[in-house]
Amino acid sequence: MTEAAALPSPAFLDDLHVGQRFVSGSHKLTAEAIKAFAGEYDPQPFHTDERAAEDSFFAGLAASGWHVAAVTMKLLVGDGAFIANGLIGAGGEIAWPRPTRPGDVLTVESEVIDVAPSRSRPDRGMVTVRSETRNQRGEIVQVLTAKLVAPRRVPAAI
Amino acid sequence: MTEAAALPSPAFLDDLHVGQRFVSGSHKLTAEAIKAFAGEYDPQPFHTDERAAEDSFFAGLAASGWHVAAVTMKLLVGDGAFIANGLIGAGGEIAWPRPTRPGDVLTVESEVIDVAPSRSRPDRGMVTVRSETRNQRGEIVQVLTAKLVAPRRVPAAI
Fold first, then answer.
1. B146 is in which domain, residue-wise?
2. Is the CB of residue A126 less than 8 Å away from at least one CB of chain B?
3. In a domain, A158, yes or no
4. Tens digits of per-residue pLDDT, B78-123?
5. Size of interface A-B (CB pairs under 8 A)
6. Model ipTM?
7. Is residue A16 part of a domain?
């Protein structure tokens, strides 16, 4: 991950603030990878067979949204998670506004949109990160708003 | 997929209604599968290394949330999607309330919670399905509320 501003790496909750941005490396999705992932986890014709995909909703082979999510995670983890205990998601919202196609090169741009110390657990908190996954034309193929568990640098006094 | 009530298979938007429920088959997650998925898409020590995982937030090897999501999709697709054009997700909300462990056997219980014909496209609509993924003890390991594109049986008159 490359961050726009200097950030201790890996970061504690106390190092994070709203507006921090990160840009990932990139990953190219091949037709073979799309079909292999779908064959194991999302075996629908528009993800596994070019010919059948032509007549589908997608009008051509498209990656499973869960494959896009998995590749996004790979890019977010990158050479090392940007949070000290790793990227541990409690959940979030996900949307796939357009299909991902064979040959697409994906990059993830992330922004911290909320930092919330836990009220009950002084050693941790929750960071909300919005991650846009874009293809090589800059088109957004996935938006993920994830809530991540982050440790505190020094347990807060109560 | 096994449905509690009779449902034309595959179904159009017109065949779906709030309260319909589906139960999937089951899938066992092995330590090898957890580590293989994580090695490719979520290479963090608590997903890839039993020893390192002991000292982590998870206190033991845990599956990547995206692996749980992918297996959930596999179970939802099952022997055939329950919607006529396939299971095409526009997006949704996802949460992982507890970790999935090696040896866990996952099953998905789904319920239709909204059916909305499109106002602009008379040939389709959106179905919202809440899917709970449970382990062999009945504990919920993932909740996914997904918006799925569904075709209409007969285009509506405007």
1. 5-151
2. no
3. no
4. 977 788 888 999 999 999 999 999 999 999 999 999 999 999 999 9
5. 94
6. 0.91
7. yes
